[in-house]
Sequence to fold (160 residues):
Amino acid sequence: MMDYLQTLLAVILGIALLWFGYRLLNGQYRKARRAMGAKPRGAGKAGDPKVCLVCRARLANGELIQTQAFPSLTGGKDKLMHIQGCVFCLEGGRGRSCPVCSAKLRKEDKLIARMFDRSRNRHHVHVLGCVLCRSQKRRPAATAERFPKSYQLSPSAGSR
Fold:
């Protein structure tokens, strides 16, 4: 009877080790495949979950958007946030544009957003605009050479 229990325990332990090894190697293979130039899964609509806000590429599980969140100065639940983009648009594979003003963005340009904490792991992001359209509202002449004429503010138009 003891021989059967030891054999059963050895089989269960062997299956568990095989399953653990398979999961470990499969995860490493996926990371390596993504690093070697995985392609985006197509274009999505801005605002959909798992879609890059800058290039509108659909992202797979584990693919993240590069961001920087700054703490709130007033102690509120919202934070200022800079959004650089995903792997596909930061490496130059896709066109980058602002979802607010549709201006073409260079690699170093960022989106400015507000991030609101909702629950434990959920956040709500409201995009305010890119560096170009946010700075143009303050200084129209500073971005005139990089911004289309149809989006430029007239000097008589005041700030809100």
